[in-house]
Amino acid sequence: MFNLGSLVLWLVVILSCLSFCTGNSVTYDSNAIIINGKRRIIFSGSIHYPRSTDAMWPDLIKKAKDGGLDAIETYIFWDRHEPQRQKYDFSGNLDFIKFFQLIHDAGLYVLMRIGPYVCAEWNYGGFPVWLHNMPGIEFRTDNKVYKNEMQTFTTKIVNMCKQANLFATQGGPIIIAQIENEYGNVMTPYGDAGKTYINWCAQMAESLNIGVPWIMCQQSDAPQPMINTCNGFYCDNFTPNNPKSPKMFTENWVGWFKKWGEKDPHRTAEDVAFSVAKFFQFGGVLNNYYMYHGGTNFGRTSGGPFITTSYDYDAPLDEYGNLNQPKWGHLRQLHASIKLGEKILTSSTRSDRNISSSVTLTTFSNPTTGGRFCFLSNTDASNDATIDLEADGTYFVPAWSVTILDGCNKEVYNTAKVNTQTSVFVKEQNEKENAQLSWTWAREHMRDTLLGTGTFKANQLLEQKGFTVDVSDYLWYMTNVDIDQTSSPRDVTLQVNTKGHVLHAFVNRRHIGSEWANNGQSFVLEKPISLKSGTNTITLLSATVGLKNYDAFYDMVPTGIDGGPVYLIGSGNVTTNLSSNSWSYKVGLNGEMKQFYNPTFSSKVKWRPFEHKSIRRRMAWFKTNFKIPSGVDPVVLDLQGMGKGHAWVNGQSIGRFWPSFIAGNDNCSETCDYRGAYESNKCVGNCGNPSQRWYHIPRSFLSGDTNTLILFEEIGGNPKQISVQTITIQTICGHANEGSTLELSCQGGRIISEIQFASYGNPEGKCGSFKHGLWNVVNTLLLVEKACIGKENCSIDVTGESFEISDATSSLASLAVQALCSKK
Ligand code: GAL
Questions:
Q1: Does the keyword Glycosyltransferase apply (predicted)?
Q2: pTM, full prediction
Q3: Which candidate, 401, 418, 412, places its Cα nearest to that of 277?
Q4: Among residues 82, 121, 149, 251, which one is catalytic?
Q5: Range of the domain at 362
Q6: Tens digits of per-residue pLDDT, 259-275?
Q7: Are residues 199 and 99 part of one domain?
């Protein structure tokens, strides 16, 4: 019979089921991450939500999913979420809850690395700078003030996720969370307090009851049940400190980051695939690409010193979200190939047989099902190998590669045999008016600071970030020097010892020099000056360029003139120490305070017509309007010709620029050998060019027909050279071996308009310089044209049959194609 009592009982059952029955349990053992009882290996990729815009997220997530990922990893960026103590911001591209929901909607998991110390080439490693000024605080150690703040923030993030039902146990996407970041790498100098701290981190994290496993990366003594994980270029040799923990590669560095003045990093698709395949060969369970999409350091978020605005990282998705081919596609095929063995890999015993000193056959076999899955690796950096596995076949394993054998007898993938297309992007100028921008300019008003007037005084040279709390890159240091009225002008040398990162010096309102160290560290500015009789004003403008983000006690590394000393050195080396003079201070630029960069306020600014002499003007603001480029291709600002400064589009910061900082001329070469261990200096490019010339303007920053671009230029440049361009796919190439399929695809709605080269036979060379080899099927071009012209994508089976030959030579054949993508 129906009664109220049974109704209540049912309601209780239904309500508890809502949180329990829809949830997924996440456990693990040494062979698998076990999600709802299903034994999984996981491919994941890092996409940091504030390094793109929320408008870009759905496309990035889709491309990650299409690339064969199961999960997306991100840090949580404390400084952005809590810019002032207990004043939080989760709006726009800081809405990580929305980001996680989108990932969930796409059917992917989330790895949430809270940190809240993140490193990440992010300003101050993700710590808000106000934290530095809290009385009694010491970062990342057993310190009450610090631990309290860390716990408050971590708890807040966890609670937000719980409220939005984002943990897997609640039916959400988060399957793993991380506390701290690579503390093990820097722990020793913190002594016993470091050990106490890491134990506290573990307990604090555990007490938050998130229902999914916690990890600590690079923490070989991780307190249980924290799982320690590995970061690096290769992690196949890593073993977790608990034999029951799964072996996880939390950061497989797919390339590297860039600093101002450095070259473009490049890690080949072959080598990344080699690292991943070897990791799974030797028992890996989870691989996360750091980064899958690197993106952009908008605003003043880049770490440092001297991390560039671009955080492209040579990731599978480039800075703008385009497929970085062949990397994206080669890894996609790798994921699919390893997934063929998922059941066996996660439930079998492994045996390794060394066939030679560099060739190893690893067999996973499941005694119950009899299933087998093999990896055959050749770690020799120069010698290829041909391996006879008797009944299981004979395999050609190029140097520095891993072959994946489904059923241990069928090659489904080799890390060095790249069948994916290469895509070449170009910068295009589609709107004529965006090439010839018309400029106005305004002065940065410096009368106050050049006359020595600040807002604060001290008889010492202060540390910069502590004083500015990093609300601006800029801090003015000003002092007066009195010279006896009766004496004649005195020629002396001004010597400023600064901790960095950039210094501009003025004496009696005149600029006398600017300087920085190549690595963004301490340097000495030394300039001859002439002091007049009476009062002389020395004005020093110190600028930071991204606060340090890594190392033991990195948070204490000083910035700015901090203690100097500042000397005047006269004839006969007579030295006057000005360090404890009365110094006036002022934080930031007047233009920053008045928001010159914001179109709403900039209408009040006196913008002057641009004349030839506006070129190379330092400490100046420049303004122009431009048209939104047609189409959907990503938009970039070409800042070639400019010095150093900051750029805003419609009031939104697109980051710092410094195109006058030229990358060194050494160590670039046309060829890049994927073989041999990668390190960040290997295969670099862009020698002798601006280390960053193009700056991403996300399309969502643009509106209507007229967009306002405002620049602050610190050291002088030529705005006349600036143009707005799009990043457009132009040439695509593929080179696939007999038995595989060559797939070609244009992006952005473009179609294949021309086949520039096609050869089935034994073609040689690479994209841009293919040539016919000793033999070639004459009508290859016609056949490829038939299959591809006018299409966005096409695919061709690379078999003798497709090319109408039955010759036995075809087993050594390959097909190379170079095509052009154009607008429909
Ligand atoms: C790791 C760190 C990451 C990132 C990476 C280099 O040490 O955990 O956050 O900084 O290095 O890109």
A1: no
A2: 0.96
A3: 401
A4: 251
A5: 352-416
A6: 999 999 999 999 999 99
A7: yes
